[in-house]
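Quick question: what would this complex look like in 3D?
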Amino acid sequence: MTSKPDQKHHHGNLRAALVEAGIALLEEGGVEALTLRKCAARAGVSHAAPAHHFDGLAGLKTAIAEEGFRLFSAFMLAALDRGPKTPRGRLKSLCRGYLEFGLEHGGILAVIFGERGLGSLIPGSSREQAHAYLLLREACAPFVPAGTNALIVEVQVWSLIHGFTLLCLAGEFGDGRAPLDEGLFDQVIALLDRLPQASPVANT
Amino acid sequence: MTSKPDQKHHHGNLRAALVEAGIALLEEGGVEALTLRKCAARAGVSHAAPAHHFDGLAGLKTAIAEEGFRLFSAFMLAALDRGPKTPRGRLKSLCRGYLEFGLEHGGILAVIFGERGLGSLIPGSSREQAHAYLLLREACAPFVPAGTNALIVEVQVWSLIHGFTLLCLAGEFGDGRAPLDEGLFDQVIALLDRLPQASPVANT
DNA sequence: CCAACAAACTTGACAGTGTAAAGTTAGGCG
DNA sequence: CGCCTAACTTTACACTGTCAAGTTTGTTGG
């Protein structure tokens, strides 16, 4: 009610169709293939139609990022579900979901963290970003030493998995386009085994 | 001698001028501002001239990456010079140089690690990349446990500092365009304090 | 009921971009 | 000297984003 009345007259809401087309283009051809005109063509409208729904290409990207964050969170939640329920197991599962999202949807990840920190400068998507960020915050909480800033552990974990994901996407490890040396992720993420657990419980 | 005879006839070698112009554009306007035609204009030649020296825009980017790697290594070497000479101090200084390069030359970093892993798929720049990578390998060596793959520690450190640098560039931490919370780097990089030193010497 | 209005969308145009095909110049070499 | 190859220019084309007008369509006020 408070927001838009669902669909207008011509095209039962075009905005969502454009975002969907944009994501499809992103999956097929990476961030280079994302184009306002191609999105419009896929949605069956003229090339200038998107201007009435987004503020240019940058606006479309923020809208895609907003949607992408949902998928991002879903990947991490799915990994959390599959994995062990210990604090350290949950932290590692979250990272695994992060990596899997990046490898399967590299284009969306590029849009989310693209250019000048779209992830932070979008006011619109900050809610969804907050959701993804809250997952990280929650998983990190058991490893925050009493009296210290929780941000530190969060940034440590975030930097590690973010860097690993991007370096994998850039093909820095592995000879070619290998899907991923499954062992490498486990061995690299094992660095988090050295994070001391704050709560007195000793299970890993 | 074995390579090109320095300068030809018209423009005392244009290739270097184009790379220089490209780097300048990169510094001024980021990776979006890097354009074949603008490079050509800056070098005072026609817009199709670069085609005789690079294989399109991608080729120019690989040439810039090749040059950028030199600057990259120089930043890490400078940080190594300034810092303490203990194994752990050297490792942290390397990371500091990595971050400083990224913050000061974000455009070049984006080109180096841009798109589909230019950093790895360029055969031409692999020598320079090897140089930068050797610095990392060297700094990590004291922390490689006997009998384990050195790659693991290297990727751990690389992922951490790479992710932290990119997240800083994306403005994910800090409210706005703050140059950098100096303390945050130290606190995050302190994660490396937990890497056990392989050699029996106990100095940090 | 209908005229006015606003929003969605189209059409057309313009400045950039990469890139390919030609033509032009200039230095090297038989 | 005459050619020839490389460097460079000119021209052209298919794209891109973006703006300024029109045109349609649904709503709304009188």
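Answer marked as accepted. Residues 56-82 of chain A form the longest helix (27 residues).
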